[in-house]
Design goal:
22 strands; alpha/beta; six-stranded antiparallel beta sheet; 2-enoyl-CoA Hydratase, Chain A, domain 1; Rossmann fold; 3 domains; Methionyl-tRNA Fmet Formyltransferase, Chain A, domain 2; 37% helix
């Protein structure tokens, strides 16, 4: 089917839908909602059979939904309406939530229903971005494929919303959640504060005061340390510890509330206000996974397998993050284990250098240079590690240098349906030794196509290219169990020795030294970072400032339909537009 994704941004969910549709043989393109007339003109030019809106903040113009079947993917159950669905669900501790595919009409979120799914929410408050990228995205993808099946049935008609039973009690029209709705006092219980901040993460954050500065707070983690509510008790790895009514909260990221700031690690934003705030060591005997042990990098071992887990907010890796992970990797590689698993976060494996920190630096070009050299040092360590079999576990998506980060591992294992963006698209040539690792995985021609094409790749397609070696289950817990079984298999003493020896021989036989690859990449990067030859400064500022796109990139656009196919689509569109039969229940029942 010829499908157009009408979206406000080509975000994680939109990319996942795009990859899934392409992988199943559909002709799919993207139209960014840059303005009402642009949407109308773009849809006319694309001539789709179906329009899907997996992430759309804008109203669909009547000229579009009246003439093309347009289905909105709403992140709420049947009966839920409004722009803050997930915010309300997390804030109020809803035990169950859902996703609804509904037809666009004049009134937002009020159209007839095509498909719906529901799922349980955890008792502990989940970060909104994690909920959106996890259960919501999974349910949305199921709805998308149900919509496609029904769209192919000429007799299908969507069901009026008032005739679909509500599956989640209390689902209703809700207003936009305001900062007054999100407000908390620091003498409130820790759980209450964490829930409110997580319901606003990653946007818009919760307005509060930290260290005497008005900020928006993000990235909250509970801690058991007691202290005066609102007081700064300590700092660690970019986060600050703030007292609450019954404990404390680690805040990893803050944004100045004066309207000029960008989201930054908390210690970076507060700066001199932390002059008398102590560095917070881990308490003696603290369990590595304990609630008081705020850590972005953790190491543990089980038998002959070492596990190095890292989870950086939004997958962004500043110079300090890279150096901490490098030190941890060297420690892990020195242990007497046979396998070393480098397991990234479930929301994101890595998205490369930390552009917000770079942009906030006094000398952004110099900060970017330091950052790229720090991540390169980590990449080199992964590539050249021959003491252990290295497994890169992509539990979450990855982009740019973060997608390249694990390619030097002996084996790359991705969670099903994660999306990789193995290219550079912000005015940078790119480094991370990708000119060494990428061609060795996929071949020189495919490497060029990935870099030049600048398109996302789903895990299954990545495996067919050789970018990924194994694909594990989608469920995070099942993926971890699968990854553990894979690591145990690789830890067989004889097999591990053979693999390590073969890698050592391959590296020794390389005709061009690793330094030469890095030197070439850095030479190109120096022109981008210091000479700004490809517009890195403007692209970086647009990224950190979340500037709206002004046009749809040509590479994402829906290509022209063959002449005969275009006429067939036009006839079907006019038939659909002129069909005024009463809405009836579909022959295919809605799935719960």
């Amino acid at each position: 089917m010829r499908v157009l994704l009408l979206v406000s941004a080509f975000n994680g969910l939109s990319q996942r839908v795009w990859c899934a549709l392409r992988d199943t043989g559909h002709d799919v393109g993207v139209l960014l909602a840059t303005g009402s007339q642009d949407m109308i003109d773009g849809v006319r030019a694309a001539a789709p059979e179906l329009i899907l809106c997996p992430f759309l903040k804008d109203r669909v113009p009547a000229e579009v939904w009246q003439h093309w079947r347009t289905v909105i993917i709403h992140p709420g159950p049947v009966g839920d309406r409004g722009p803050s669905s997930l915010d309300w669900a997390i804030t109020e501790g809803a035990p169950r939530w859902g996703v609804t595919a509904l037809q666009a009409v004049e009134e937002m979120d009020a159209g007839p229903i095509w498909a719906t799914r529901t799922f349980a929410l955890p008792a502990e408050p989940v970060r909104k971005s994690a909920l959106y990228g996890g259960p919501v995205a999974d349910a949305a993808l199921e709805c998308v494929f149900e919509v496609l099946a029904k769209a192919a049935d000429p007799g299908f008609r969507p069901v009026p919303a008032d005739r679909v039973p509500a599956e989640v009690p209390g689902a209703r029209l809700r207003p936009l959640m305001t900062q007054d709705d999100r407000r908390f006092a620091w003498d409130a219980p820790t759980g209450h504060i964490v829930r409110r901040i997580r319901a606003a993460d990653g946007a818009p954050g919760v307005r509060t005061e930290v260290g005497g500065l008005a900020v928006f707070a993000y990235d909250a983690h509970p801690a058991a340390v007691r202290g005066r509510p609102g007081a700064l008790l300590g700092r660690r790895q970019g986060a600050v510890l703030v007292g609450t009514g019954d404990g404390s909260v680690w805040l990893g990221h803050l944004r100045a509330a004066d309207g000029t700031g960008i989201k930054l690690p908390a210690t970076r934003l507060l700066g001199r206000r932390l002059r008398d705030v102590p560095q917070w060591p881990l308490p003696p005997g603290t369990e590595p996974e304990g609630p008081s042990a705020y850590r972005q990098v953790r190491y543990r071992r089980t038998g002959r397998v070492g596990w190095l887990a890292f989870d950086f907010y939004n997958g962004a890796m500043a110079t300090g993050h890279c150096r901490r992970l490098l030190a941890a990797f060297r420690h892990a590689a020195a242990q007497d284990t046979a396998v070393l698993v480098l397991r990234g976060g479930t929301e994101a494996f890595s998205n490369g250098i930390h552009l917000n920190v770079v942009d906030a630096a006094a000398e952004p070009a110099g900060a970017a240079w330091d950052n790229i050299k720090a991540i390169n040092a980590l990449c080199r360590e992964i590539i050249t590690c021959t003491r252990q079999v290295v497994v890169a576990g992509y539990a979450g998506g990855a982009g740019a240098g973060g997608a390249m980060l694990g390619l030097g591992a002996d084996l790359v294992a991705a969670r099903r349906d994660v999306v990789l963006n193995p290219y550079y698209d912000i005015g940078l040539y790119g480094s991370e030794l990708h000119t060494f690792t990428l061609p060795r995985r996929v071949g020189a021609d495919a490497a060029d196509r990935l870099i030049d094409g600048r398109l996302p790749v789903g895990a299954e397609h990545a495996a067919s290219l050789g970018l990924v070696d194994r694909v594990g289950p989608r469920d995070p817990q099942a993926y971890d169990e699968w990854l553990a079984a894979l690591a145990d298999e690789l830890a067989d003493p004889r097999a591990a020795r053979l693999r390590q020896s073969a890698k050592a021989r391959r590296l020794a036989a390389e005709r061009v030294p690793m330094d030469a690859y890095e030197a070439r990449e850095l030479a190109e990067m120096s022109l981008d970072m210091f000479g700004d030859r490809s517009g890195f400064a403007a692209a970086r500022r647009a990224f950190v400032g979340k500037a709206r796109p002004v046009a749809t990139p040509e590479r994402l656009a829906l290509g022209p339909a063959p002449a005969g196919r275009a006429a067939q689509i036009a006839r079907r569109r006019h038939q659909n537009a002129g069909d005024r039969r009463p809405l009836v229940r579909p022959a295919v029942p809605l799935s719960a």
